[in-house]
Amino acid sequence: MDHAVHSFIAKHHLIRSNQTLLVAVSGGPDSMALLHFLCSMRKSSSLRLVVLSVDHQLRGEESGEDLCFVEEVCQQWDIEFQGVSVDVKSYKKETGKGTQEAARTLRYQWFEKMMYAYEADALVMGHHGDDQAETVMMQLLRSARPEAVQGMPAVRPFACGQIIRPFLTVSKKQITDYLEEKNVKFRLDPSNTETDYTRNAFRQHVLPFMNKKNPQFHKHMQAWSERVREERSYINEQAQKVLETVHFSQNVEKFVQFSKRTFKTFPLALQRTAFHLILNYLYVKQNEDISYLHEEMFMNLLNDEKPNVSLDFPEGLKITRAYDEITFAFKEREEEKGYKYELSIEGSVELPDGSNITASWCEPDETENVFTYVCDSHHVKPPLVVRTRLDGDRINIRGMNGSKKVKDIFIDQKVPARLRNTWPIITDQTGKILWVIGLKKGGERTSLSSGKWLRLHYKNKADT
Fold first, then answer.
1. What pLDDT digit, counting tens, does each position of 265-319 carry?
2. What is the pLDDT of residue 170?
3. Contact 88, 103 (CB under 8 A)
4. Which of 91, 144, 317, 444 could form a disulfide with 313 if both were Cys (CB 3.0 to 4.6 A apart)?
5. d(Cα 212, Cα 207) in Å, to the nearest integer?
6. Rg (CA), the chain
7. How many CB atoms lie within 10 A of CB 377?
8. Do both 323 and 345 map to the same domain?
9. What is the pLDDT of residue 238?
């Protein structure tokens, strides 16, 4: 076992000379083997070892005795010791978390505090190859997403340093043999044999079958974990190219927007990865309620032929697609109310979004553009009205026979659904629609008409 662990440490650059290592020790066989192994390296590598031991107060006096046992061993082996008791039951009541999650949260909070207190380089954990195999199988049971099925990393950032796991390359049996060979004492936690928790059920029933079929199963799982992490790291790196085309809000209220057309130009693997990176940004970290089914829902939204579709995700996240625009947002923008303003000639009105519309008289040869409207004043009855759409609105479009529904104009012009209720429309006093601003124009423009002509101009807030 010694050679395997030393090779693993060297391969992943886990331990270097003159480091301060905090060692998580429960008193069980795995952590005691780890502590003994690190002690064998202490002099040759000039390591400072500090043992951290936590009493979760879940097994009464017995768990307190585990803490005392670890402290006594540290005294015998001349190792610095720090122990703590945490109230898991009270924390469960306060937070509503399960026993295992509550215990882990309190444990890691204390570990982090100790890392900073000692300015340590690493926190060393005793997870071994069988633990890794259990972890991968449990992750696969919960999720089909590759990024969620990677096992435990040999090294990862933590507090002011790292968490390292030197034993991931060895099996539980190798550790047991090591303890016997070195005559290392340890304590057993009876709860590890219970099958109420999913991990213990895998440990008691699934893993023995796998090991029987392949005694090197733990090595296969570790090699698989390392390869998956390397490949996911590369894919994540490539997915940054997708994210360069995505707009991430800088506001307090987070939202994300991007073009469906542009997004779909990237390979499918990068689309999926970018989708989860976007969720990581919005949720801060990936929400556990997100599964591959949500991913498929999103991919279906990308390919849906309907111009406007939406999805509801956990914690109030809503994904909407309005033609080419896709938006991720936790809170829908409050639906803006419709409006109606009177617009006199030689006057102006300001819309709720800060845009401005002016009306004035002009000469017949006045030019038009998308934001300027000119018509024969003989066919217009002032004062004018600037309003939002009404059910049944129709406009007689210049150059066309008959009328067309404003609703159909919005659809044809691919106006996002969220903008339609506040889109400005100008009518005269009789209700005749003159202009669906920026989209279609009505009213007469006959060059032979004499007298004054009406000129309307729309100025967006961004241009003011």
1. 999 999 999 999 999 888 876 556 677 788 899 999 998 888 888 898 888 888 9
2. 94
3. yes
4. 317
5. 8
6. 34
7. 20
8. no
9. 94
Average pLDDT along the chain: 87
Same domain, residue pair 109 and 61: yes
- Tell me the binding residues: 26-31
Cα(403)–Cα(380) distance, integer angstroms: 17
Distance, in Å, from the CA atom of 189 to the CA atom of 24, rounded to the nearest integer, reads 16
Q: Are 279 and 153 in contact (CB under 8 A)?
A: no
Same domain, 64 and 19: yes
Indicate if 204 and 287 belong to the same structural domain: no
pLDDT at 122: 96
> Would you say residue 239 lies in a domain?
no
- CATH number of the domain that residue 267 is part of: 3.30.465.60
Tell me what pLDDT residue 250 has: 62
CB-CB contact of 385 with 427 (8 Å): yes
Domain boundary among 178, 202, 230: 230
Tell whether 235 is covered by a domain: no
Whole-structure pTM value: 0.64
Q: Would you say how long the chain is, in residues?
A: 464
Number of domains into which the chain is organized: 3
Residue 331 pLDDT: 63
Report the binding-site residues for ATP. Answer: 26-31
Q: Are residues 60 and 205 in the same domain?
A: yes
Residue 122 identity: A
The residues near 461 (Cβ < 8 Å, ≥ 6 apart) are 353, 354, 355, 356
Residues 398 and 259 reside in one and the same domain: no
Q: Are residues 264 and 375 in the same domain?
A: no
- Tell me: the pLDDT tens digits for 36-59? 999 999 999 999 999 999 988 887
**Structure confidence at residue 339 (pLDDT):** 92
φ, ψ dihedrals at 145, nearest 5°: -85, 125
Nearest to 202 by CA among 189, 218, 184: 218
Q: Residue 258: helix, strand or coil by DSSP?
A: strand
Low-confidence ranges of the chain (pLDDT < 50): 195, 464
Pinpoint the alpha helices (H) of 188-255: 198-201, 207-213, 217-243
H helices of 21-128, in order, are 29-45, 61-77, 88-95, 99-118
Claim to verify: residue 306 and residue 358 sit in the same structural domain: no
Using CA of residue 171, residue 177, residue 183, residue 187, what is the dihedral sign?
A: positive
Residue 325 has φ and ψ, to the nearest 5°, of -95, 125
Range of the domain at 389: 340-463
Residue 335 lies in a domain: no
**For 57-69, what is each residue's pLDDT tens digit?**
887 788 788 899 9
Residue 259: C-alpha distances to residues 262, 295, 313, 364 (Å): 5, 18, 20, 41
Judge whether 397 and 372 are in contact, CB under 8 Å: no
Question: At which residue do the structure tokens 């122990």 appear?
Answer: 83
